[in-house]
C-alpha cells in the first residue's frame, strides 16, 4: 500500500519562558511511515511524547525541525510542518480528524447534535440525515436511547467517551488520530468501538492510535511503535 504519512527527523522542542527559558526536547529525531489502510499503535510511558507527536501531525503544535509529508487526496503531498494555515484547515475539513482523549462537552447541546456536527463539519457529499446517522452510531455503541437527546456534561466517563469517538468517526475520515478511545469502557462496549474504528480501514483509511490497553492494541494494530523520551524504540 502507498504511504499516507511520512515523518522524517522530526524534532519538537518546548521553550519554557517562565522557567528561565528551560528547553524540553519532547520529540527527538522521529521517523515513521504510515501506509494507506494501516492502523499504527503509539505506546510509551507518560511524558514520552505521544500526545505531542499527534499534535504536531494535526498542527496544533508547530514542529521545530523535520518534515511530516501527508499525501492528500485533494492537495497532493503536503508537509504539515511548513503548510500554510489555510492548507491545514482544508485538510482538517476534508481528510484528517483528531479525537482527543476527553470530550469537551458544550453546555446545552444534546449528545446526538455533538455527533452529527462531526458529519456536518466535513464535506463528504453524503445524502443521509446527520441526526439519523448520529443516533444509529450512539445506539450501536450501546448508549441508552434516552441519553441520545440529553446533555453529555453530566454523563459518565464511558458515556462521554463514546460520544467523543462517534463524533470523530461518523464522517469516515481518511486519516484519524485517536488518543485512548477505549480507556473507560467495559469489554463489550470496547469491542464494539474497536469494530467501528476498524471499519474505517475497509475504506482505506489510516489510523494512529494512542492506547495503554493491551486488548485494544492487539485487536486493532498492524504495528506498534514505542516512544521512549521522545525517541522511537523500534
Ligand atoms: N504545551 C507544552 N508546553 C511545554 N511542555 C510540554 C507541552 N506539551 C507537552 N510538553 C512536554 O513534552 C513532554 C511530552 O509530553 P506528552 O507528549 O504530553 O507525553 P505523553 O502524551 O506521552 O504522556 C513532557 O515532558 C511534557 O511536559
Ligand atoms: Mg498524552
TrEMBL record:
- One of its Pfam families is ABC_tran
Q: Which GO terms describe its molecular function?
A: ATP binding; ATP hydrolysis activity
Domain of life from the UniProt record: Bacteria
Q: Does the keyword Cell inner membrane apply?
A: no
Q: Which residues form the ABC transporter domain?
A: 5-234
- Reply yes or no: does the keyword ATP-binding apply: yes
**Keyword annotations:** ATP-binding, Nucleotide-binding, Transport
Q: What Gene Ontology terms for biological process does this UniProt record contain? A: transmembrane transport
Q: Which PANTHER family does this entry report, sorted A to Z?
A: TRANSPORT ATP-BINDING PROTEIN (PTHR43776)
Q: What is this protein called?
A: Alpha-D-ribose 1-methylphosphonate 5-triphosphate synthase subunit PhnL
**Organism whose genome encodes this protein:** Cyclobacterium xiamenense
Amino acid at each position: 500500500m502507498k504511504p499516507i504519512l511520512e515523518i522524517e527527523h522530526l524534532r519538537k522542542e518546548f521553550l519554557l519562558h517562565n522557567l528561565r527559558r528551560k528547553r524540553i526536547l519532547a520529540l527527538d529525531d522521529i521517523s515513521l511511515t504510515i501506509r494507506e489502510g494501516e492502523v499504527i499503535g503509539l505506546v510509551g510511558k507518560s511524558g514520552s511524547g505521544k500526545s505531542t507527536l499527534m499534535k504536531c501531525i494535526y498542527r496544533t503544535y508547530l514542529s521545530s525541525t523535520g518534515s511530516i509529508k501527508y499525501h492528500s487526496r485533494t492537495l497532493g503531498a503536503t508537509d504539515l510542518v511548513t503548510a500554510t494555515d489555510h492548507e491545514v484547515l482544508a485538510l482538517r475539513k476534508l481528510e484528517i480528524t483528531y479525537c482527543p482523549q476527553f470530550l469537551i462537552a458544550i453546555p446545552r447541546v444534546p449528545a446526538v447534535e455533538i455527533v452529527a456536527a462531526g458529519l456536518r463539519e466535513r464535506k463528504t457529499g453524503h445524502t443521509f440525515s446527520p441526526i439519523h446517522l448520529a443516533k444509529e452510531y450512539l445506539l450501536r455503541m450501546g448508549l441508552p436511547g434516552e441519553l441520545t437527546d440529553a446533555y453529555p456534561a453530566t454523563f459518565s466517563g464511558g458515556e462521554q467517551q463514546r460520544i467523543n469517538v462517534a463524533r470523530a468517526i461518523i464522517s469516515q475520515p481518511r486519516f484519524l488520530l485517536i488518543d485512548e478511545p477505549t480507556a473507560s469502557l467495559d469489554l463489550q462496549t470496547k469491542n464494539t468501538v474497536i469494530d467501528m474504528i476498524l471499519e474505517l480501514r475497509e475504506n482505506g483509511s489510516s489510523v494512529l492510535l494512542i492506547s495503554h490497553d493491551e486488548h485494544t492494541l492487539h485487536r486493532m494494530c498492524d504495528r506498534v511503535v514505542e516512544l521512549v523520551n521522545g525517541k522511537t524504540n523500534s
